[in-house]
Specification:
Elements (H helix, E strand, L loop, with lengths): L5 E2 L2 E2 L9 H12 L4 H6 L16 E6 L1 E2 L2 E2 L2 E10 L7 E13 L3 E6 L15 E8 L8 E2 L4 E3 L48 E3 L8 E2 L2 E6 L8 E3 L8 E2 L2 E7 L33 E8 L10 E9 L7 E7 L6 E13 L10 E5 L9 E13 L12 E4 L5 E3 L2 E4 L2 E4 L4 E5 L10 E6 L3
């Protein structure tokens, strides 16, 4: 063969010229990201169905070989190696050889990585360069390495699937998603996070639901995570919603901090059915919803008495209690925690109306909904003139002034309590912060 010549952008001792880089990019990337092309279409709103057949790892490489400016017409051996740098660096995977490859009019086509020779981590978002070496005719001697190495570049939409990439867009019906995953295998998993240094799943904001599971054996399963198993920063609807699970909707086997930490602008959680808790319930208080049937506003801490009840139209609330300030003679039902309001549920369950009652802070005006603590710890408004007060004192309603200690008298050495309706037991001896309220264990009797 003759001395090397420069041809286009390539010079090598083989007197061979590669194809133009753009053609290499188009041919190579179409094959590499064939399995990822769904995302490109999904972002434009197209509905794409992927068959269960797994896409092979191989991809096509085409080039041109010229000998002193004349296209080669022969059978040649072509060798390819993948590297992590344009020069030097570390080889990725093993070298592959396409022996006795037909070259016609200078052009050839080979398929690389058919058995994943470059390795499972070859194309996970890092930059890669392909090094080509040839010898013509086949079996004729040493290989000539073409310089420089050829950079492998991605199709534009493939960039949305590299690690750390952001997939975003405006996608409406029918799928309403920028990324949909489906696995029809008997034991298939829709999405699996093998390892997460912080959060297994992180949802910063969702206009409707943070996580929606329509139906599965286990709705969400987090095996192990050093941070949060599931974290929902903000959701316009439900932070997490499980419609149907054949076994467990949400299961947390072990958490070093909180198994589940939930907050909501309406309700921290809503359970359609009975709830079982094994262990103590710290800070829990039983509440009921009612209507202020009196003539004055009910403030948090006010003691209320039962005047009647009527059927409720809200989901999960069978009765609304008609309450008014306790006057010391009527049956005490509980302590005002605050007002309440009715909210509409966008996606109610079957047989539900979609109307929820939600506790709110502040006073309940006459005719408004009110939230009432019927059992547990609550702050109660005290009559400032009621003395003395001791921890463990039984409290009775003292009218508009607030609660007072139950009066006792001693007869022939026997202490007798007055027969007044009580609200509960004082757990502190006075108003320590001067707000007119003291903590009481509410237990009407």
């Amino acid at each position: 063969m003759k001395a090397p010549k420069f041809r286009g952008r390539w010079m090598s001792t083989s007197r061979l010229r590669r194809m133009q880089p753009l053609a290499l990019v188009l041919i190579t990337v179409i094959s590499i990201v064939a399995g990822l092309a769904v995302a490109a279409q999904a972002q434009t709103g197209d509905q794409v169905t992927v068959t269960a057949t797994k896409i092979a790892p191989g991809f096509t490489f085409q080039g041109e070989l010229h000998d002193n400016g004349i296209p080669v017409n022969a059978n040649c051996d072509i060798r390819a190696a993948l590297w992590d740098a344009p020069s030097g660096g570390v080889q990725v995977g093993s070298t592959q050889t396409a022996g006795n490859t037909a070259v016609r009019a200078g052009r050839f086509t080979i398929v690389l990585n058919t058995s994943a020779e470059f390795g499972a981590d070859a194309f996970t978002g890092q930059a890669r360069w392909l090094e080509i070496a040839v010898r013509c005719p086949a079996g004729s001697g040493d290989y000539a390495v073409l310089q420089p190495r050829q950079a492998l570049t991605a199709a534009p939409y493939a960039h949305t699937l590299v690690p750390g990439a952001l997939i975003s867009g405006t996608v409406g019906a029918p799928s309403n998603s920028v990324l949909s995953l489906g696995n029809l295998g008997e034991n298939g998993v829709g999405l699996r996070v093998l390892d997460a240094g912080l959060d297994g799943v992180y949802i910063d904001r969702a206009v409707r639901h943070g996580v929606t599971v329509i139906g599965s054996l286990t709705g969400v399963n987090v095996e192990s995570t050093r941070g949060n198993g599931i974290y929902v920063g903000s959701a316009g609807g439900n932070g997490m919603y499980v419609s149907k699970a054949d076994y467990i909707g949400l299961y947390v086997g072990n958490a070093k901090r909180y198994g589940l930490d939930v907050a909501g602008s309406s309700l921290a959680g809503y359970f359609y059915g009975a709830v079982q808790i094994t262990g103590g319930c710290t800070g829990c208080a039983l509440t009921a919803f009612g209507i202020n049937s009196g003539q004055a506003a009910l403030q948090p801490g006010d003691i209320v008495a039962l005047r009647g009840s009527h059927l409720s139209q809200a989901d999960g609330v069978p009765l609304l209690l008609e309450v008014a300030p306790a006057d010391g003679s009527t049956a005490v039902v509980g302590i005002v925690m605050g007002r309440a309001e009715e909210v509409a549920e966008e996606s109610p369950r079957p047989h539900e109306t979609g109307r929820r009652l939600v506790p709110r802070q502040g006073a309940a005006q006459p005719g408004e909904l009110v939230t009432i603590v019927t059992f547990g710890l609550a702050q109660v408004r005290m009559d400032p003139a009621a003395t003395p007060l001791a921890i463990g004192s039984r409290l009775a309603a003292g009218g508009a002034a607030g609660a007072r200690p139950l009066q006792t008298v001693e007869v022939n050495g026997v202490t007798l309590n007055e027969a007044a309706p009580t609200i509960g037991m004082a757990v502190e001896s006075g108003d320590s912060d001067g707000d007119g309220l003291i903590w009481v264990f509410v237990n009407p009797g």
